[in-house]
Amino acid sequence: MITLRKSSERGYADHGWLKSFHSFSFADYYNPDRMGVGNLRVINEDRIAPGTGFGTHGHRDMEIVSYVLDGALGHKDSMGNGTEIVPGDVQRMSAGTGVQHSEFNHAKGQTTHFLQIWIIPDERGIKPGYEQKHFDAASKRGKLALVASRDGRDGSVTIHADAALRAGLFDGDERAELKLDPGRHTYVHVVRGSVQVNGQAAQAGDAVVLQREEALRLEQGQDAEVLVFDLAP
Question: What b/e readout covers 135-170, taking b as 16+ CB neighbours within 10 angstroms?
Answer without folding.
Answer: beeebbebbbbbbbbbeeeeebbbbbbbbbbbbbbb
